[in-house]
Specification:
With about 210 residues, the protein is α/β, with parallel strands linked by helices. The chain is built from 8 helices and 7 strands. Strands 3-2-1-4-5-7-6 form a 7-stranded mixed β-sheet, sandwiched between helices. Helix 4 (about 75-85) links the parallel strand 4 and strand 5 (about 85-95). The longest helix has 20 residues, at about 170-190. The model has no long low-confidence stretch (mean pLDDT about 85).
Length: about 210
């Protein structure tokens, strides 16, 4: 049995076709309705902490672009540890603050001479590295520390796969350039430098 926290259903549907028995957790009512009625998936409407799943229940938990949005990432991860079986895996994708720092500095520089709302309109998409879009941002080091504190053992942190969700061709080209450039830096540094827009992490619940 496997679960996706923050689920619109598409990932669960793919997992089902690969032989998994997926369950979802989603705060958005419309997304739950779509998953249940259009995809015939089991999705709990609410937060993982409210779902009251059994202890040591899931083999895999996925948190794809979720941790940066929650009020207490450590509480969420501790609940993930509780519902995971020993040896179970958690897969995570979060924005990479190392990539976002130059953007934040640029935004701060312009904010000194521009109204912030006007700035957000001019720099479309830049605000994804600020609140209210994201409550927390992580570097590879802080993500590893958070996982350790929650009781998980980090296996790998790397650049996240590219997501093809841009309607503007130039944005797609730029995303590809950043992605492949980040992969090259990662390889040349022996896996120590993660410079992409997002990072992916695989961690396990230790067998005790």
């Amino acid at each position: 049995v496997d679960t996706e926290v923050g689920s619109a259903g598409f990932f669960l549907d793919m997992a089902r076709h690969q032989g998994y028995q997926p369950q979802g957790v989603e705060l958005d009512k419309d997304a739950c309705h779509f998953a249940a009625n259009k995809l015939s998936l089991e999705v709990f409407h609410g937060a993982l902490l409210d779902a009251t799943f059994q202890e040591d229940f899931f083999n895999i938990v996925t948190l794809l672009n979720v941790l940066e949005h929650v009020g207490s990432p450590i509480d969420l991860l501790r609940e993930v540890v509780r519902v995971l079986k020993p040896g179970g895996v958690v897969a995570i994708i979060v924005p990479n603050l190392i990539f976002g720092l130059p953007i934040l500095r640029l935004r701060g520089l312009f904010a000194k001479v521009h109204d912030v709302k006007k700035l957000d309109k001019k720099l479309k998409g830049i605000s994804v590295f600020t609140v209210p879009e994201h409550l927390y941002l992580f570097t590879p080091a802080t993500l590893r520390k958070l996982l350790t504190k929650a009781g998980l053992e980090t296996m790998v942190v790397a650049n996240a796969p590219i997501i093809e969700n841009c309607n503007v061709p130039m944005k797609t080209v730029l995303k590809r350039l950043v992605y492949y450039g980040a992969r090259a830096v990662f390889a040349l540094s022996g896996g120590s430098l993660i410079m992409g827009y997002s990072m992916t992490c695989i961690a396990i619940k230790p067998r005790i």
